[in-house]
Design brief:
alpha/beta, Rossmann fold, 16 helices, 2 domains, six-stranded parallel beta sheet, single chain, five-stranded parallel beta sheet, 358 residues
Length: 358
């Protein structure tokens, strides 16, 4: 089956979780697009040498990734090749595959923001003008990508995944393990999240934090850490159980990535859990404040709203249900995002009909 003139897609992995490229691949395959994955993660050197290669993006393993990617594209000639994040691929790689496929890119982080000087972006940024088209995660990145020479750029928001993000009824044992008033699962930054969570804990609100202990522990005051530590990372079903076991799920926005929304902005409502998120104009367009989600702009407002909604279960549950209905009716699932992606790519391919890849 084709979508427009697209019937085959090859995705080169750059991230490390199933919510990224594997979710795209499964969705596209179920929509009738023959989709394969090129996984470079096993092509670098073993052990510490491989970690160094992947960090500095230099070495025989990186060259192997680039060469094998070129050979696969030349052999399969997919209609579209998506370089997800694209950290491994330099200008030469893009030049070599352009004659055989439409080269698309996507990044779920912010290559143009405060961390643009990181080593992980050193191959990507110079190669951007050679992509036929590129999707970015947030509106602010669109103009920046165009300024870097990408000829065609659109925004592709994050999504929830229907086969993963759905309401879960927890057993008594699961409720005992995961149950809490407030949960936050994510990384630590020196921003609102540390102060907000500190004040919630000091206010006596049962709080659970999930993430990487080695980063959270030094960020929290010792007495705060004793309340919630040790902190562990949760993925897959455990991540969703942690969300579904809470009365309120907090959503903080990364300042490193200059986020206007985040993946949790869709995952939490999809699990039919009350979302308390940092307030942004973009989120206020996605959800009606006080009816489909709640927002805050300061630690004081965060704790005030926690106390109110924990004391008013009926209102809290009504908002959680409305948020669940909104995220579904507005098409924030991965299938809807893939339909947009295909439509954008199909339009771009028509615009580049005289390009060398045809």
């Amino acid at each position: 089956m084709k979508h427009g003139n697209i019937s085959t897609v090859l995705i080169a992995r750059g991230a490390f979780a199933d919510i990224y490229e594997p979710a795209w691949s499964r969705s596209l395959n179920e929509m009738g697009i023959e989709t394969g994955i090129f996984d470079p993660h096993g092509l670098t050197l073993p052990g510490i040498l491989g970690r160094v290669e992947r960090r500095i993006l230099f070495g025989p393993g990186i060259k192997r990734i680039q060469n094998e990617m070129v050979e696969r594209v030349k052999r399969e000639r997919p209609d579209v090749t998506l370089l997800y994040q694209g950290h491994y691929f330099n200008r030469e790689t893009i030049e070599r595959i352009r004659p055989f496929t439409f080269v698309a890119g996507y990044h779920n982080d912010d290559p143009f923001g405060p961390k643009k000087g990181m080593l992980r972006y050193r191959l990507l940024l110079p190669a951007l003008p050679l992509y036929h088209g590129y999707h970015v995660y947030r509106w602010g990145n669109r103009g920046e990508a165009l300024a870097h020479g990408v000829p065609r750029v659109e925004v592709l928001k994050p999504y929830y995944i229907p086969w993963l993000d759905y309401p879960r009824e927890l057993s008594l044992d699961e409720e005992k393990h995961w149950g809490t008033d407030l949960v936050f699962a994510g990384h630590v930054e020196n921003d609102l999240r540390v102060e907000c969570l500190y004040r919630a804990i000091r206010a006596g609100i049962r709080t659970k934090i999930y993430g990487e202990d080695r980063f959270w522990r030094p960020a929290l005051l010792p007495d705060t850490y004793r309340e919630v530590g040790p902190i562990r990372k949760v993925i897959g079903d455990d991540y969703r159980r942690a969300i579904c076991g809470s009365k309120i799920a907090a959503s903080f926005l990364s300042k490193w990535n200059r986020d206007e929304y985040t993946r949790r902005s869709f995952e939490i409502p999809a699990c039919k859990v009350f979302m308390l998120s940092e307030r942004t104009p973009a989120l206020q367009e996605l959800y009606e404040e006080g009816k489909e989600a709640e927002f805050f702009s300061s630690p004081e407002e965060f704790v005030e709203k926690l106390k109110y909604y924990l004391a008013n279960a009926e209102v809290r549950n009504k908002i959680a249900l409305a948020g669940y209905q909104r995220v579904q009716s507005s098409g924030h699932d991965v299938y809807s995002r893939m339909r947009q992606w295909l439509s954008d790519i199909d339009r771009w391919r028509e615009e580049t009909v005289d390009d060398e890849w045809v």
